[in-house]
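Entry 14. Ran structure prediction on the chain below.
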Amino acid sequence: MVIIGAGAAGLSGALTLARARRNPLVIDAGQPRNAPAGGVHNYLGREGTPPGELLSIGRSEIQRYGGSFLSGTVTDAHRLDDGAFRLTLDDGHAVEARRLLVTTGLVDEMPAIPGVAERWGRTVLHCPYCHGWEVRDQPIGVVASSPLAVHGALMWRQWTPDVTLFLHERPLPEPSELAQLDARRVRIVEGRVAAVEDEGVRLASGELVPRAAVVVQSRMTARAAFLESLGLKPTPMELGGEVIGTYIAADPMGATDVPGVWAAGNVSDLMAQVIVAAGAGLKAAAAINADLVQSESAPAS
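Output, structure tokens:
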């Protein structure tokens, strides 16, 4: 049993399978999405825990039950004649498994605005539930980098009375949206954003609008290229006629369209927070164990 990815979903799945005496192997590239964040939030019992600390605790728990880890990136996956899977890593190492749980997460593709990428997870934010409390009552700027901009500005207004929506390269919102923004007292600034700086948002006109934090929406792309050799391609997620991300489609228990392959966490649910991803990993692991039990209980022919 192999799990690809050691974030919250992968570790939760590995812990479940280890306690089910499946001796899971977890393969991980060491590139967690939330590494820049100062803490994990809305995780009951672990509120504010640094992401690296949470992962370290999870690894120790899994090893206590017999699970193991292998560092590397899976670059290819093929099904063997006996139905098992053969995985090839970037260092040429090969691993075989009867079932796969894919929890590789996603990559945030930033808008091409100078200053955004290097401040991501610190003063450039994306989720009010993840970061809203930490910047409460401070001046917040929302840069319209996706169709979610108006929704985002309305949401962030819950945490602070001072929200400015920068239209950047997008048109003026619809009249109904303008009415909502006005009702929430969200200021609108037209004109292209030239850069995000420590002091705030720099417009192409040269004007600096002071902001303590800036919100942008990334394009969320599933880390799943290696699955295409199994016939499993990412599904585009569209909003307002625009693709805002890609994900691996899976049923509520994590089963994909490829028998023997499950997916959990952000790779299959772009909006899942850490605690949701962990729960999805547990569900998928339970489904995998049940599937293995069923195959092992088949009468000998």
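The longest strand covers residues 74-79. Will compare against last week's run tomorrow.
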